[in-house]
Amino acid sequence: MLIFEIIFLSQYIDSLILEGIQISYEEEFSKAESIFNIVINNDTLHPAGYFFKSALYQLKYFDMGYDSIKEFFFNLQKKGISVAKRYVEKNPDDPWGYFFLGGFHTLNVFLYGYNGDYINALKNLFPALDNINKSVKMDSTIYDAYLGLGGYDYFKGMLPFMGSEKEKAFKEIKISIDKGKYTRFLSSSALANLYIREKRYEDARKIIKELIREFPGSRTFLWHYFNSFYYEGEIDSAIYYGYKLMELSKDNYYCYIQSVYFISELLLKKGEKKKVREITENIRDDLFPEWSKKIKILREKSFK
Predict the structure, then answer these.
(1) pLDDT of residue 10 exceeding 80
(2) For 159-181, how does the pLDDT look when each residue is reduced to its tens digit (9 = 90+)?
(3) Tens of pLDDT, residues 184-215
(4) 3 band by pLDDT with thresholds 50, 70 and 90
(5) CA distance 65 to 81
(6) Cα–Cα distance between 24 and 60 in angstroms, integer?
(7) CB count in 10 Å sphere of residue 72
(8) For residues 230, 231, 235 and 239, what is the CA-based torsion angle, rounded to 10 degrees?
(9) Helix 48-64 to helix 253-269 angle, to the nearest 10 degrees?
(10) 47 near 101, Cβ under 8 Å?
């Protein structure tokens, strides 16, 4: 059964996927997962539901930081890749099958790279690119795939004998933002991060402002906004949005402890040691010790 039979001709499933993506960025992870489980159960032999559930768990891991979430993600990835490979074998003329297979490998690239495991990231890079290229060659209107193409064109300069094509990459990711059906938010987030990397801070903020208006309670997008000021060296603005992150993270200790760290670092630069002592007073040592140790160092400095 082809993807357009399942998604494009099934308004119910298509609307579920879009609803699940929307809720994912509202960080209602359990509700989003239940929606993607419905998509999976609608056709357990199709990779779409597994892909969106994997993407959800990657977002959840970035937001909450627990290793158990990462382990679940990789187990889900194995299942999803297996389903996608079987689907492509049975439906070699469906470009969406290659998109999802490439998408699974792309998710692996992101998470391995995030954790500094560049060997496994590289192992997934080429099957990701190969399958995404196949999908676009078969159907150039699969605009969601241009995110992966753009990411490769930007970062390929890190590979031996390869040069980066940054402006081409930005154009490809913009296509995914403007015309993609499922990756608009992810593509916007990715482009903003690349602009920050390129020190195009105001360009990054223009993108993120729109997402914050749409998702005012989202930590995911507010982190990008904070980072644009932090890396630009705009200390007062970074502190302001750091406190906003603290407020949004009262039920998320991973984000909370990170925001405390960055605010404390910036306050120390301003010589506001009393405020550092106030916000670091009740930091726990048993959760995310790598962050609590960093905060302890900053707290000790605030007493000098």
Answers:
(1) no
(2) 655 666 888 989 999 999 999 99
(3) 999 999 999 999 999 999 999 999 999 999 99
(4) very low
(5) 24
(6) 8
(7) 16
(8) 0
(9) 40
(10) yes
Residue linked to tokens 């729109």: 210
Helix (H) or strand (E) holding 44: none
Cα–Cα nearest to 2, from 96, 81, 86: 96
Distance CA 25, CA 21 (A): 7
Closest by CA position to 92, among listed 2, 4, 10:
2
Q: Residue-wise over 237-253: b if at least 16 C-beta within 10 A, else e?
A: bbbebbebbbebbeebb
Domains and CATH numbers, the chain: 3-245 (1.25.40.10), 246-304 (no CATH)
Please calculate the CA angle 234-236-242 and round it to the nearest 5 degrees: 95
pTM listed for this prediction: 0.90
pLDDT score of 125: 87
Amino acid at 116: G
Which residue do the tokens 């499922």 mark?
182
Retrieve residue 20's tokens. 């699940």
Q: What is the pLDDT of residue 162?
A: 62
Q: Which two tokens stand for residue 206?
A: 């223009």
Torsion sign, CA atoms 281, 286, 292, 296: positive
Three-state secondary-structure class, residue 85: helix
Q: What would the two tokens of residue 149 be?
A: 């193409």
The closest alpha carbon to 35, from 47, 51, 48, 17, belongs to 17
How many C-beta atoms surround the C-beta of residue 106 within 10 A?
Answer: 25
**Would you mind telling me the total number of residues written for the chain in this entry?**
304
pLDDT of residue 17: 95
Answer whether 26's CB lies under 8 Å from 217's CB. yes
Q: Is the pLDDT of residue 182 over 50?
A: yes
> 40: which residues sit within 8 A by CB, 6+ positions away?
49, 50, 53
Residue 244 CA to residue 190 CA, distance in Å, equals 22
